[in-house]
Amino acid sequence: MRTLSETKFSILELAPVRDDKSIAFSLQHALELAQKAEDLGYERLWLAEHHNMDGIASSATAVLLGYLLANTKHIKLGSGGIMLPNHAPLVVAEQFGTLETLYPGRIELGLGRAPGTDQITMRALRRGRQETEEQFPQDVLEILQYFKVPEANQRIVATPGQNTHVPVWLLGSSLFSAQLAARLGLPYSFASHFAPRMLGQAIQLYRENFQASEYLDKPYVSMGVPTVVAETDEEAEYLATSAYQRVLGLMRGQSLKLKAPVQSMQGLWSPAEKMSVDNFYAMGQVGSHAKVKTGLERLLNKYDVDEFIFTCDIYDTDKRIENFSRLMEIKNDLN
């Protein structure tokens, strides 16, 4: 069983938009976080693709990745993930092949099977393309081929893209991508930061069915973990109310912009809504150094993952960056 110090720590960034700040502020903050993550020694920082959500500014994922790559030095950056039903595989391969050509060895492509948005927005993204989630396996294979040396008589070649060998991950919140990642021998990241219910089952399925490949010789798993780490448990619980309000907005179809923390959520949610938020954040780690360390060790003992990829919805941007500093102190056992 590995220890926290042996476990890789990474960040999943959604470029959250505060209710009192501009989108430009959010994008600048995403860069500041990437630079801080690089200084702290995080393994990677990924951006998530979501559309038509006023509180998430990472919709043009490849474009924002270019900005972050240009202003950092060595940290791995990637997508967590590109929602493949929204895109033609060739376009994805060309975009990430271009980024890999400009910044060799630093770009990663995480692929998701869901649209990452609502039905109306999905239709606006696809504009007549009859793409479905059922085509996902074939689309993944197509992208993997675009990144290889072209085969003889291959009629479509991604330029840039060919022979770049961009690392590809599969992401999922159900069992489908776990099975596909196992069959293709790809690394797998489970979206337990918002859909933790099938985490254990998906990891077991992936490991039991994994087939070694040119990409990996053994299974590699990361899991999403929401975090709010502060000086005290009480301060962390207070800061976490911004995250709870955000999930409440998602459930109610309201704004997803980050709201300032409140002293109590009582009166803001019903008992059923509280239960839903608690389920959403079942893997969440909220508290002081000691409490979060214990919580992460418990997750590691239960799931034995290779990597934690952390999210954080703290309103105050300085305290948000501080959250990731505190996590790295936990990893390095600095109390």
UniProtKB/TrEMBL annotation:
InterPro entries: Bact_Lucif_Oxidored (IPR050766), CmoO-like (IPR019949), Luciferase-like_dom (IPR011251), Luciferase-like_sf (IPR036661). This is Luciferase-like monooxygenase. It comes from Acinetobacter gandensis. GO terms for molecular function: oxidoreductase activity, acting on paired donors, with incorporation or reduction of molecular oxygen. Residues 22-247 form the Luciferase-like domain. To bacterial alkanal monooxygenase alpha and beta chains. NCBIfam families: oxido_grp_1. Coiled coil: none annotated. GO terms for cellular component: cytosol. Pfam families: Bac_luciferase.
